[in-house]
Design a protein that fits this description.
alpha/beta, 8-stranded parallel beta sheet, monooxygenase, Propionate 3-nitronate monooxygenase, flavoprotein
């Protein structure tokens, strides 16, 4: 079955879900134009998930996806004790001061439980539930299917794609190492799972029988055409949409995307404690040079304190400037223009 038929969309083009940077406006703009809009729910409570789903439905009657992070405990990730916490806060002291932010007191608020999130997400019954950082449990896949929800998983290696297909997902995102944001590896450390899209996509296509969605380094018609030539059934794009005025990224972040070059991005654990691709700025440099990084999700919560203030001030040197290696190709300010550009690379599949 083609991706369009599986999901109920006109175009096999997917908006990458931005955990923390999604907006109702961008998600619905992509869905309304015939693609699959996605909304990242990282850190959302059940009440906020219900409100977000209602807001999306108030803006479009087209299919959309909700995205969740599976609870994956990676090596080095663990709750921190109070003394450790104080050390991690102190390591970020200069950045709190630079942002004019208060040092967060113990304990810092951490994300809500996955159980709370998945219950609300299933009840919201979007057209698609997509997941990163693992294989969704069989009972969740079954519950989604019982509600008519399509399930999509995300792989960074062929082995992960095989595990997802065996787990009953309906489609697999093959996320090349060029992609922006967190590397959602789950079978091996992210540093050992850095396969580029040109190599990853055709190998995943040859391995699984479900539709494959190519992601990473795609921002215009040429990337779309290449992905389909490699055997992909659909394409997922993040950075080009993140740069549009409909995204929730601060203007300072969007401006840096439009001026970045492919060689400007780095993979770092500095901002969240998990490996992610973004632009190196003052915050990344100082955290890496200091050598003290709290485990996820504590580091993410701590940097979030000064990132919020920096976003309000327009200080791009203190933000998580997530972007992929295709950032220099992000040339449009409007989501509909991005989708139109991508659609020009789609093959004629009428025959």
């Amino acid at each position: 079955m083609r991706f369009e038929e599986l999901v109920g969309v006109e175009l096999p083009l997917v908006l990458g879900p931005f955990g923390g940077l999604s907006s109702v406006e961008l998600t619905t703009a992509v869905s309304a134009a015939g693609g699959l809009g996605s909304f990242g729910l990282y850190g959302f409570t059940a009440d906020r998930i219900r409100a977000t789903a209602a807001a999306l439905r108030s803006r479009t009657d087209r299919p959309f996806a909700l995205n969740l992070w599976l609870p994956l405990e990676l090596p080095g990730e663990h709750p921190v004790e109070r003394e450790e916490y104080a050390r991690y806060v102190e390591a970020l002291g200069a950045l709190f001061d630079a942002a004019g932010a208060e040092r967060p007191a113990w304990p810092i608020a951490l994300p809500p439980s996955f159980d709370e999130q998945i219950e609300a997400a299933l009840a919201a019954a979007p057209a698609v539930l997509s997941f990163i950082f693992g294989v969704p449990p069989a009972e969740i896949v079954e519950a989604a299917h019982d509600r008519g929800i399509v399930v999509i998983g995300t792989a960074t290696t062929v082995a992960e794609a095989r595990a997802l297909a065996s787990g009953g997902v309906d489609a697999v995102v093959a996320s090349g190492s060029e992609s922006a944001g967190h590397r959602p590896s789950f079978l091996a450390p992210a540093e050992d799972s850095l396969v580029g899209g040109l190599a990853l996509v055709p190998q995943v296509v040859d391995t699984v029988e479900v539709p494959v969605i190519a992601a990473g380094g795609i921002a215009d018609r040429r990337g779309v055409a290449a992905a389909f030539a490699l055997g992909a059934d659909a394409v997922q794009v993040g950075t080009a949409f993140l740069a549009t005025r409909q995204s929730a990224a601060p203007e300072a972040h969007r401006a840096r995307i439009r001026t970045a070059e492919a060689s400007d991005t780095v993979l770092t654990r500095a901002m969240s404690g998990r490996l992610a691709r973004g632009l190196r700025n003052r915050a990344v440099r100082e955290i890496e040079e200091g050598g003290t990084i709290a485990p996820f999700p504590v580091q993410n919560a701590l940097t979030g304190v000064f990132r919020r203030t920096a976003g309000e001030r327009g200080d791009d040197e203190l933000l998580s400037l997530w972007m992929g290696q295709s950032a220099a190709l992000a040339r449009h300010d409007d989501a509909a223009e991005v989708l139109a550009e991508l659609a020009r690379g789609l093959p004629d599949r009428s025959r």
